[in-house]
Amino acid sequence: MRLILISLAMLALSGPVFAQPLSIGRVDGPPIVILNQERLFSESLFGQRVQTELEQASSDLSRQNRELEAALLEEELSLTEQRATMSAEEFRPIAEEFDTRVEEIRAVQSERLRMLSLQADGAEQLFIELTTPILRALLAEIGASAVLDSRVVIYVAEGGDVTDMALQRVNAQLGDGGEEPILDRLIPNAP
Fold it and tell me: Does residue 99 register a pLDDT over 90?
């Protein structure tokens, strides 16, 4: 009978616990804090600068692609006109050279896009490396021993999310990353 009463009491208590905010006082042992890593990067001066550089590089690449496409289309139209005045034997090497050049241009542009993607990944990795000592100092200051990414946390007590505090520290200590373009530091530009 006692076991049944304990089970019923536990069932009665289990429902409202999830529906109501937790009231947490002082936690015994090392506190764990929450950090939204995506927000820390995207709202930091460094992350915003990276985003601006990526947008500019992407825009430049798109413009270059449009210019190349227009030039190749014009050349293709010219070749189509020439074909009417040439024999198949005369035209074949010209067409093959054009096709080879088009494939080379596509490969170069594809490599540039791949490099841009690698630079974006590298910028995020660089940000993590540069902010690690800043975040460690913050954790030591507030007495936390662990940080969880906010994407894996269901609930956090008030004051448990240190993203705003970390963002202020990162902006104050790292700033926008300096004068040299960030993307240029990571991977040399593609051909």
Answer: yes
Read off the DSSP letter of residue 42. H
Residue 161 has phi, psi (to 5 degrees) of -95, 115
Q: At what angle do helices 163-174 and 88-142 cross, to 10 degrees?
A: 110
Rg (CA), the chain: 29
Q: Which two tokens stand for residue 37?
A: 């890593």
Cβ atoms of residues 134 and 154 within 8 Å: no
Neighbours of 60 (CB within 10 A): 12
Residue spans per domain, the chain: 29-186
Query: What count of residues does the chain have?
Result: 191
The arithmetic mean of pLDDT across residues 21-42, rounded, is 69
Question: Rounded to two decimals, what is the model's pTM?
Answer: 0.71
**H-run or E-run covering 146:** strand 146-149
Cα 32 from chain centroid? Answer: 25
